[in-house]
């Protein structure tokens, strides 16, 4: 696919790599909202919500890169090439990703491409899905006396299911946010069991965190594959956390 705009000058443009948050427009930072207003080109992932994209200025060209889990996607090399090409045309380029670009967002690869091209950039963080998901449960990701560390883990890498420090995750009181773990749920369950995790350890899956269609499925490690099979959209697995009982307004479904 070829995208081109008439160059405005021979001066290199600027690239902003930003996080759109988990979906709800209210979770967008002011800095990212301003970047949307001023961008000439917005290269966005499929998971960036329409409400967020609606904040782009009338001058902006919106280009979907198609990255959404296991579906069709533009190759990372092509995305990086587009970012560089538009910047070389003197454009103000916004590379917009769901969540935070520095959390499993392949930010480093795009920064490497900009470094090699000698193009200036700014990185604007976004609210990551783990924070929004925990808030929906009425829970803290860290808590004195419970967990002194928090792990952000990916369930799936470029070559298949991803390994992790399963022994550490299996310890009582451990808390982790597992991204891209829905299809790896049975694998994750098996690895944790192999390393001594209790089948009664709480686990909660939050689908479409912060969006109107958000769903919360809660159970234990024993329920993990069955819970994951009930979800269709993007989800984060919160290992070691259950919804707080007082959060009655949320659409929480507890495994039977």
Topology overview:
Blueprint: E1 14-19, H1 30-38, E2 41-44, H2 50-53, E3 61-64, H3 76-88, E4 92-97, H4 107-117, E5 121-124, H5 129-137, E6 151-154, E7 156-157, E8 160-161, H6 166-169, E9 176-179, H7 185-194, E10 202-207, E11 215-220, H8 224-229, E12 235-239, E13 252-254
Parallel strand pairs: 1-4, 1-5, 2-3, 2-4, 6-9, 11-13
Antiparallel strand pairs: 7-8, 9-12, 10-11, 10-12
Helix pairs in contact: 3-4
Question: What features would you describe in this structure?
Answer:
The strands form 3 sheets. The protein has a 6-stranded mixed sheet. The protein has a 5-stranded parallel sheet with strand order 3-2-4-1-5, sandwiched between helices. Strands 7-8 form a two-stranded antiparallel ribbon. It folds into 2 domains: 14-124, Cobalt-precorrin-4 Transmethylase, domain 1 (3-Layer(aba) Sandwich); 129-254, Methyltransferase, Cobalt-precorrin-4 Transmethylase, Domain 2, CATH 3.30.950.10. It has helices spanning 30-38, 50-53, 76-88, 107-117, 129-137, 166-169, 185-194, 224-229; strands spanning 14-19, 41-44, 61-64, 92-97, 121-124, 151-154, 156-157, 160-161, 176-179, 202-207, 215-220, 235-239, 252-254. 42% of the residues are buried. Helix 3 (76-88) runs parallel beside helix 4. 26% of the residues lie in helices and 22% in strands.
């Amino acid at each position: 696919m070829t995208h081109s705009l008439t160059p405005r000058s021979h001066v290199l443009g600027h690239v902003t790599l930003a996080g759109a948050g988990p979906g709800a427009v209210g979770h967008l930072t002011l800095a990212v909202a301003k970047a949307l207003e001023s961008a000439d080109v917005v290269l966005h992932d499929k998971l960036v919500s329409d409400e967020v994209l609606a904040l782009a200025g009338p001058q902006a060209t919106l280009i979907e890169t198609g990255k959404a889990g296991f579906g069709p996607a533009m190759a990372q090399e092509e995305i990086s090439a587009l970012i560089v090409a538009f910047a070389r045309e003197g454009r103000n380029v916004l590379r917009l990703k769901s969540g935070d670009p520095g959390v499993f967002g392949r930010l480093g690869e795009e920064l490497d491409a900009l470094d090699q091209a000698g193009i200036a950039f700014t990185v604007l963080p976004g609210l990551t899905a783990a924070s929004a998901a925990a808030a929906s449960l009425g829970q803290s990701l860290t808590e004195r006396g419970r967990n002194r560390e928090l792990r952000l883990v990916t369930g799936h890498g470029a070559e298949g299911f991803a390994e992790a420090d399963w022994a550490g995750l299996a310890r009582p009181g451990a808390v982790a946010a597992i991204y891209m773990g829905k299809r790896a749920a049975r694998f994750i369950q098996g690895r944790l069991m192999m390393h001594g995790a209790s089948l009664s350890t709480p686990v909660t899956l939050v689908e479409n965190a912060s969006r109107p269609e958000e769903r919360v499925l809660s159970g234990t490690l024993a329920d993990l594959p069955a819970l994951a099979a009930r979800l269709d959209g993007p989800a984060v697995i919160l290992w070691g956390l259950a919804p707080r009982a007082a959060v009655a307004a949320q659409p929480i479904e507890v495994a039977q």
